[in-house]
Structure formats: C-alpha cells, structure tokens
Amino acid sequence: MTKGESGDHSADGPSRRLVLQSTATLLSLPLVANSTTAWAQEKLAGSGEVVVFSYGGSFTECVRRCVYEPFTKATGIKVVDVVADLAEPHVKAMHQAGRVDWDIAYIEAEAYPAMHKAGMFEPIDYSLWVKKPLRARRRIKDAVVGLTSAIVLAYDQRLFSGAGPQHWADV
Q: Could you tell me the sign of the dihedral formed by the alpha carbons of 53, 55, 61, 65, in that order?
C-alpha cells in the first residue's frame, strides 16, 4: 500500500508501515521454516499487529498454524487474518479511499501489473530475509510470488482412435 495511506498505530507501537516493511516477506512458509526464533526476535522484535488477507477454510487454517503462529511466537507481532473471496477489489477500494486496512494480500498475477502501476504497493525490504532468500524471480520490488500453479491437459485414449488429439480443435 502507499506510504501516505498506511496510517500509524499508537505511539507505543510501530507504525503500520514499519510492520508492513518488516513482515511482508516473513509471511512466507519457507522463510518462517528456515528462520530461528533468535534471528526473528533480533531482527523483528516488536509489538503491534499485521493484517493479512486470506482465502479462508483449510488454506487459512494451515497458514495460521504453520506461518502466523510461529511468526507471532518469534516476534511478538500478532497476525490478524481477514477472509474474503478476492483481494483485488478490496485493495483497489482501500487505495481509492485512502484508507488501507490490510498490510498483506494475495493478489492474482494477472491483476498485479495494473495495481503496481497504480502505486498500490510498498517496496519490500529484502534485507530482512534469512540466509536463504527466495529465488530472484520470485522477488519483485513490491511483491513476492507466493503461489504458483500449472495446468495439465490430458485426454482419455478410449475416446480417440489413433494417436489422440492432433489439434486444439480436437481438444
């Protein structure tokens, strides 16, 4: 989210921007699994909270158990998850309203370029990563590629005589 929109928490705790910068990359399962409690406490010790969009269901349950809870235990920073169907409409509305309520969201790859161009995201401080950071192609100035997928086309050989589909029209 943009600097002017991020807002501050109480004077006792870190600003939302500081929490965002220091935790955005930490909410990645491989990072949390590879970090130590001592490292996390040294680098990110603090208080406050980080608000994260999530899809809900078993996905959110797993992320809570495997990422959020260890992160909170290591840093003292509470992770609050907000469940919605899609993040993009909410992030766009928050950006337009100038009131950002979420610190981290899962954004679909197709939506990222336009949202990036509109200035909806903050740069990530990759110096906060542990010794084994994500591959460079997963690190973007203001985003981390967190989920990837693939589609495999298959066919039932019983439905095609010979070598199977030969052209897209056959599929």
A: negative
